[in-house]
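Progress narrative, work stream C.
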Amino acid sequence: MASEQPKEVPADPANPSTPAAGEDAAAPSKKGAKKAEAKAKKEAEKARKAAEREALAASTSAAAAEDNAKDNYGEISKDRPINVEIVHLRDLAEEHVGKTIKVRAWIQNARAQGAKMAFVELREEGNWTVQGVVSASAEGTPVSRQMVKWIQGLKLESFVSVEALVQKPLEPVKSTKVSGFELHLTKIYLVAPAPEMLGLGLAAANRPVGSLEDESVGEALEGLSVTEGTPVASLATHLNNPAMHKRAPVSQAIADIRIAVEDLFCEYLRARRFKRFHPPSLIGAASEGGANVFALPYFDKQAYLAQSPQFYKQIEIAGGRKRVFCVHPVFRAENSNTPRHMTEFMGLDLEMEIDDHYHEVLHLLEGVFLYIFGKLASEYREEIELIRSVYPSEEFLLPEPGKEVRLTFAEGQALLRAEGPSEFANVTDDEDMSTAQEKALGALIRKKYNSDFYVLDKFPVDARPFYAMPDPENPKVTNAYDFMMRGQEILSGGQRLHLPHELEATIRAKGLDPNQPGLKEYVDVFRSVGVPPHGGGGIGLDRVVAWYLNLPSVQLVADYPRTPKRLAP
């Protein structure tokens, strides 16, 4: 018999690693070896990453423990004083180079330069900005990486107090107003943090408004150029974010010019023996007999907000003053939503005794304006140019000395009929001018006389209040005038009636009762004493500034504008 061959025993399918009969049980399979090798590599990689994490954590912990600058930054406290001289950015000079100073300012911008360096722009009032440098790599500088990182995280418009070494930059810093110096920060403390998101950013606040509060007056923005794609904010957004609106350099420049006009008005008059007084804002009857007044409860009666200090200026003259002036709020309950109207505005008023002719007053008022315009042009050129960079405008043209532009109302209407747009071909001499007529006449006068400033005299009786003195040679017109800037009225004035019987007759001719409350007290002043001939004018401060700078709205001039649609903030 043939010998019996041994049968092949298959591998255990439940345990592939079990060797089949005839295989070396001690030798692993190729497949198993590969799996074991992969698993070992995976475990090794896992261990390596864990070690790296531990090393990084240890490094971070060590770095944190080694933050030698931890007392040089963070929130301000009484335990972190900066005991060096405080210097304002506008006063930085060569004498400060190499010295350590203290500055308190807003963070206007911040940018990182790697992990060890950052640049910050610091800003003080009046758009005074300077570049600050903070570096953790500079030898001997008490700055750490953590300090640099913390500074990079400060929110724009936060207020900080810094200690810094004044140095000269390698080249002038073009992005800041203080270009010849830079501050190397050694300490920085957060005094007041800004929010994560600003309602109005500084860049947008320093651009022209995108639209006015009333869509019907959008034409006032024509001519303004804004770079395509540049975000702009509406006037409402500006005024609803008053702090950021006021931080904008253009807003501060406008505010500075506004106060300059008021100060120059007072300065000119004081030098000519005018005396200042304060008229009331609360009165017991509607002034000037008008209906556009704000009424309010006043204990057991009704009171009103004054529309004008006119009566009180005249009482001052009756009281023995020869020349008086005042700066005061004026209230008008007129539902006018235009770029030239507000319900509250600042008035600049004067009244003076007349010796021979009411043009004495007119000429003095011309002197006031020419003085103001001259001073603005010579002493506020930087502010004017800054404003023009945002709201472009042509230079405000003034007449040559001795060649002031004065037209009668009738002459102005005649010029409109002869050379103005066709829609004004039939304007009459006995009706007041519309805004469109005023602007068209202003364009004609600029072209004909090369001046943006002029006077319209001899207004018709129906266009003037009851106290205006009629022209003794032509009772259809008055000894009253308007002063105009760029074709828009900024002053109304003239000679006043000073004899009680003439005043009463004119009041009745206007359909009013001289014995009604408010008017009776006014007329009684002229009945009680002899009052000399006098005249004056009332100026709208915000209009003067707006039209001089050719701004789209008087609301950009007022500190806190009030309109039919705005009573806040």
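Work stream C, second folded protein:
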Amino acid sequence: MLARRSSLLRILRRRDPEMARALLRAVPFASSLRSSSALHSQTVHLGAAASSSPLGTSLFGNKVGFFGAGNEKQLTGLCGRVWASQRGYRKVRRRAAKSKDRELELNASICIEEDLPDDLEILSIAELLRLNVPMAMKLAFDGLKDATYQTRDTAIDDVGGFQSVELSVLLCNDDFIRKLNKEWRDEDHATDVLSMSQHVAGLKLPILMLGDIVISVETAARQAEERGHTLLDEIRILMVHGLLHLLGFDHELSEEAEAEMEKEEELLLKSLGWKGKGLIQSAYDTKTDTDLRAENPDDRKREGSLRFYKPKFSYIFCDMDGTLLNSESRISLTNAKALKEALSRGVKVVIASGKARPAVINILQMVDLAGKDGVISQFTPGVFVQGLLVYGRQGREIYRRNLEPDVCREAFIYSREHGIPLIAFCEDRCLTLFEHPLVDSLHTIYKEPKAEIMPSIEDLLAAADIQKIIFLDAAEGVATNLRPYWSEATGARANVVQAVPDMLEIVPPGTSKGSGVKMLLDHLGVAPKEVMAIGDGENDIEMLELASLGIALSNGSEKTKAVANVIGVSNDEDGVADAIYRYAF
């Protein structure tokens, strides 16, 4: 269709330059949506059966350029050509006999916008539309003959006066149709279907350039679920609605116009044998509104919609405490669904946490995100214990760093003398000197391994290598006593870090969660530009700086938010899900 317009304009420029200039002014969308390569075609004869012409086959993969807002986009296109007056089969001869009645050629271009990912269902629907659209055009044109409408714009009347009719149908997502809706109608929200007429009344042309129908398959999928039919059914309904708009029907003019268009929709769908009511009646039945501004006031994708978008990142690195976990140390169902949806779209989610790996597995098991197809297992990569234990491909350990025994000894002496509980993290074990409610909370609330009570400091130090130690106290005690004291006492022998206000962690010097993430990326051969990272604590700063997009949740520390590219909503507002739906696709 679009390539034919270019050819037509070349002819008009030679024969009638003024008419060519008028046509260019009248069809802005045609000049912005044009073919960058010749489309293959297929000839189909409507009737009880259909046959393919040996002249060519319509294939996916043809490229059509869309130039909008100064940016060229690529669309996948296919074109179906239908001879409307022909019915059934006819005998193939070397030379076709001349017919006194000229056949009206119906050309339908089916395009898929480039930002819509490859999806078998959508590709299958596009292939069906290649035949369905010309069939709907044929029946719609037949319905105009000898019909008397009170409200239809009759700018398109005698279709038989043209040699051919051109129509394009574009399948896209909500982002694309929202931008188009803003540009064409100055309405900044997504919608289900837009129709843009290219017909110029008064120009005597051999081709009727009917126009363009743009359908959001994202909105169509949502409406199909609400209305209890398939995505194909809904797209057909939207296509019929858009086609009738191009033929002069407009339900927004008056109640009479709405009734007339509604009747024509239902008649056309019934004649085609397609399921579903017309779009007008469906909207009334389900009490849905095509104005989606109240539901989605910004660029955040909806739950379940990620199949209609390509991922911007290959990996999402995510912290646990204060980030994926809410203030009750639980993963919300909304966060869990977002992670599952991201995984289903091929994005790899990697945990980077101060927690030990068993604790993370235990927590994610509760929302069915641990195991072979989940976020974590014994065989998946991850960064744990503040980057002191890093696991690579197949979950194999690629890095381990232990804390100096002298630092550990001094800390446990301090713990025993002051009665402040201290936990030693030793790979998959936790060790301590005495029982305490805060020690129990580390297991019951934070799901860390249950601490083993050791009889003495020397027994504890001899039991296993220690990667880090954690003091547990009230937030005020950590801030006013523990942190100042141990920042000075450790000197260059260790670093003092905080992930949450009521814990103080002492780790080996020169190590961090960020360094562990960098080591893992190098091991996996992943560039930082492929990574989005989400965190909240000071121990997440290096990780957020390393990633292409670093997101600090609003509940995070001021230092962390200062280095982030984006500040998201809090961990109690499903901050991880919001970040995924807003920025990852």
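DSSP finds 20 helices and 22 strands in the chain. No further action is required on this item.
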